[in-house]
Amino acid sequence: MSDNTASMADLAALRQMSYSLMSAVFFGDLRETADLISDTASEVLAVSDWAADMSFYPDLAEFLRAFGELDSESYSEVESQYQRLFGPTPSSASSSVPLNETSYLVPGAEETGWVLASVERHYSSAGIESTPASGNVPDHIAVELEFIAFLCGREAEAWAGDDFKEARRMQDRQRRFLDQHLSKWIPIFVREVTGREDTGPFELAAKAVQVQVIHDLDFLRSLQPLMRSAV
Amino acid sequence: MTIKAQTNSVVTGTGGSGQAIDRRSMVSGLVLVCGDSPVATSIAGMTVEGTEWRFETTDDLCRNSDGIDQTISMAPTNRLIVALCRGEHSKSEFLSRSRKAGIETFGTQIVEIPAATDSDANKAASVTTVRGAIARSEAFGSADAGNIKTAFSGAGGKISRRALFTIPPIEYRSVPTINRSACIAGSGCTQCEKSCPHSAIKNVAGTVQVDTSACKSCGLCVAACPQRAVEFPSFSPVEIESQVEAVLSESDGSSKNIAFACSKSENMPIDDWQIVPVACAAMVPAAALLSTVSAGARSVGILRCVEECSQQSSREISGRIDYAKNVLERAGVNSNRIVNLAPSILGTENRSPAVSEPPGVGSHSVEIFGRTAASNSVLALNEMSPNGIEAFTHAYSPIGVPVVSSTACTMCGTCSAVCPSGALTQTTSENVVELTLDAAKCIACSECVESCPESANGAIELDLRTDISALTVGPVRINSDQAIACANCNTQFTSQLTLNRLEVLLGEDYSHDLYGTLCPECRTLA
Ligand code: SF4
Ligand code: SF4
Ligand SMILES: [Zn+2]
Ligand SMILES: [Zn+2]
Ligand SMILES: [Zn+2]
Fold first, then answer.
1. Number of domains in chain A
2. What percentage of chain A exceeds 90 in pLDDT?
3. Above pLDDT 70, what percent of chain A?
4. Gap between the Cα atoms of B275 and B277, Å rounded
5. What residues pair up with B257 in beta bridges, in sequence order?
6. What's the rounded mean pLDDT across residues A57-71?
7. Helix pair angle (B311-330, B373-384), 10° resolution
8. Is A6 in contact with B23 (Cβ distance < 8 A)?
């Protein structure tokens, strides 16, 4: 039996940080998140003793290292990579990889409006108000990831505050959102990114998102019966 | 919409020794050996050709997994083999430790070596064991996130809320994903779906979907797939085959006894067995037994665990063993070479059978999974036998011969369309429709019989026959008929026999102008 001394609070906090950083990267404001990433990267890598027992850890660490290593010079290169991959493209260039869920809907299977409404429902029922002014669409990868980060943060607080029920509620919210949204389109998004040339560190970032999302959905599903029947 | 980025961390480090592995500068793999075993120096002295494997011996390794991070950090890798004294270690502790040290999930194998006796034969056999593990490790590709399922050990009983503030001990299990470029679900194959005892894998409108929460990681779907399209890292066809081949190829002066053992078994067979771990004993097809014998093993065994290899699968396993023994007997090979090992219970001895040395063989290559594995292994044994294998039928035969009645069959083409192995094909040329059978490809799945609209009339039956002449004759025409071409677009769209049958079925309602002149497409346009 593995000697796993980490608390649920630590794990939730680690996942919160992971999602926040991935979100920051896909917001595209790389220079501003630069310090944040390199600071936090070392912090995450420092907890590796228990965290490395989790199957998502190697990909997370690799993603963090790739961004943590960037200096002010390489940032401009990465920024232009971001633009080439995800930015608006001149009509002559090949189209960019969309960053929002509704671009990946199976034609005819689901309605764009329905998906957006569902995403918004998840946000509002968790007590988050939409502020469309920021210019980010609700189904943007960065917003969806930040939403999970937010739920992870609340879960971590609940554990820290000895509030088992609240922690379980936050896990349930994460599981449902991962199940209904992120896990449905992230794999297709990642395939798109990997299919491109010159993806720089974004391929590692995309891969890390996929691994984290799939791991967490599976982890929360496996944990659910234990959480439900705990006495 | 904005959600405030929360990066104020509450993560506290445990001052861990965990290493972040830089995947860019790695050796192929690392073998850690417990120095307390009398065979340790023999293993540490091994050489591996072609790839860069490092060997490290640590005293008291079995009781002390702490140091392994350190050793791994000196030679970063994501493939690890830990050779530990039999019965003196905790497997899950080493797996967890190795993950913490940066070895990828499923990248670690634990092999058991003798704790006490020190004979030369033991030393040589242990080197062979490690050689097999290295081959298996090199055949292991990598696990996708979708192949990894979290299980909590001790999840059976009730657990207290207090206890759940700490992460319960984690165990990772392999779950299948599908290699879409090899999968032929689009043409109706449902072999994986039919094989799954937990309804976890389904062909949904031509695409196979795996419900990982229902999957119990038994690997039965892997064994059922004629296309080797089910990916199941850590127990994949190529990993298992590579290990068996490597063990059989090693000339260590002794003959080899191979035991396919459920990885959940508490107690591995001792003595002179080389262990090949499988996800469940029921994922071992008859071809595994036959192919391993024909590739030079002295004996082959299957070991079930007590808890999970269920009653149903134990009947299935006995059936396959009985079939394989029948083949051996007919080939003039002592059928005692195949053993149904007693389910692993502590203290069961499971000695290898008292049979003579196997004859020398030319090739040690084995084919265990996929549509041609069974027929090829039967053919290989046939080559080795003095008089050839006489045809016989058996309820658990993995190969068969579809028999078509030329009077009842209407040449409608349904059977060939559903046949997942390509044994039945129907072609149309020069106004003739032909149904062809290549029995060497038949996997005895009976999809053809189940789908045939005329099966009640005996149009097609599956003879569960192992028949060398059918396996070697090549494609044979088993029925033919005149093809009917569309009067409008000239596509040959049906056969005369189908029209005759339609006329019988519809009686007075049959109209040749309607059914016999235009293809369905032109009919709707008309
Ligand atoms: S591994 Fe077993 S339980 Fe899982 S899908 Fe395959 S047959 Fe079903
Ligand atoms: S058995 Fe193999 S080829 Fe057939 S549907 Fe399943 S995965 Fe595809
Ligand atoms: Zn030891
Ligand atoms: Zn078992
Ligand atoms: Zn036509």
1. 1
2. 48
3. 87
4. 6
5. B273, B299
6. 84
7. 30
8. no
Interface confidence (ipTM) of the complex: 0.83
Q: What is the rounded distance in angstroms from the CA atom of residue B268 to the CA atom of residue A3?
A: 25
- Report how far residue B74's alpha carbon sits from residue B59's, in angstroms, rounded to the nearest whole number: 18
pLDDT tier for residue A178 given thresholds of 50, 70 and 90 = very high
Distance CA B107, CA B351 (A): 30
Q: Which domains are present in chain B? A: 1-143 (3.40.50), 155-231 (3.30.70.20), 244-391 (no CATH), 401-525 (3.30.70.20)
Q: Which chain B residues are Cβ-neighbours of A10 within 8 angstroms?
A: 10-12
Q: How confident is the model at residue A157 (pLDDT cuts 50, 70, 90)?
A: very high
Closest CA relative to residue B317, chosen from B348, B290, B283:
B283
Instruction: Looking at the complex, report in whole angstroms how far the Cα of residue B271 sits from the nearest Cα belonging to chain A.
Output: 27
Q: The domain containing residue A99 runs over which residues?
A: 3-230
| pLDDT at residue A219 is higher than 90 | yes
Chain B neighbors of A48, CB-CB under 8 A: 16, 18-20, 100
Q: Give me the residues of chain B with pLDDT under 50, please.
A: 1-24
Higher-scoring residue by pLDDT: B354, A100: A100
**Closest Cα of chain A to B64: distance in Å?**
13
CA-nearest residue to A40 within chain B is B7
- At A207, which amino acid appears? K
Judge contact between B12 and A47, C-beta under 8 A: yes
Count of CA atoms in the C-beta half-sphere (13 A) of B435? 26
Global pTM?
0.84
Q: A79: domain CATH number?
A: 1.10.3480.10
The DSSP result for B103-144, as a single string, is PPTT-EEEEEE-SS---HHHHHHHHHHHHHHHHHHHH-----
CB proximity A6 to B under 8 Å: yes
